[in-house]
Structure to design on (212 residues):
């Protein structure tokens, strides 16, 4: 039997423990950052594109994402694939996204770099291979106004916050191309297209803001 003098403390602790349950189980609270990957244009950095045959059902099932695009951009003689998606289940996106998105390629993580001209955007590099052809893949992860450099540290840092706040969307923007070199990412066509996609994504919020 609990002493009456401990009752207020017990009630307070139980109420505190219920906060995450109410937020996630009953309310399903999410926080919209106003950014949309679907706003990335079909013509990007002067390159025209065509959609791939990836199905919305696959993206929703595997990545828990409904706002997404996948296109092939034609840059000279190369086709650069661009895949971008937002999900309120961040782990679906930051945990080796190349394994899900780039099937048909051999994509091996190959360190990180900084997006040329954007020191605030860390880029995760991939060494691409298909048959005898080799190239570069690259992706950026956006969350709560910043870009994620180290997913493991991100997971640790946000674990406590997510217990007491609504879920926020993570965005994956990934490009892949069978040309270029991971040793010179600043000249790789896929990295250049990634920069254009990142900036178009960032501009999507401004485009939706009402004019004063």
């Amino acid at each position: 039997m609990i002493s009456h003098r401990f009752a207020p403390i017990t009630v307070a602790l139980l109420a505190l423990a219920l906060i995450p349950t109410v937020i996630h189980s009953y309310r399903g609270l999410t926080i919209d950052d106003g950014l949309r990957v679907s706003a990335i244009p079909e013509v990007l950095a002067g390159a025209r594109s065509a959609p791939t045959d990836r199905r919305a059902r696959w993206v929703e099932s595997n990545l828990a994402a409904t706002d997404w695009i996948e296109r092939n951009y034609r840059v000279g003689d190369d086709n650069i694939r661009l895949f971008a998606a937002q999900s309120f289940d961040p782990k679906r996106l930051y945990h080796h996204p190349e394994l899900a998105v780039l099937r048909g390629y051999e994509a091996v993580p190959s360190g990180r770099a900084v997006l040329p001209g954007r020191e605030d955007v860390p880029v995760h590099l991939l060494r691409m291979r298909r048959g005898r052809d080799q190239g570069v893949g690259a992706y950026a992860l956006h969350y709560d106004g910043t870009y994620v450099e180290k997913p493991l540290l991100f997971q640790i840092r946000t674990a406590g916050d997510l217990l007491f706040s609504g879920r926020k969307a993570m965005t994956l923007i990934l490009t892949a191309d069978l040309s270029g070199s991971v040793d010179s990412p600043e000249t790789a066509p896929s990295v250049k297209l990634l920069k254009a996609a990142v900036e178009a994504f960032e501009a999507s919020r401004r485009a939706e803001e009402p004019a004063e």
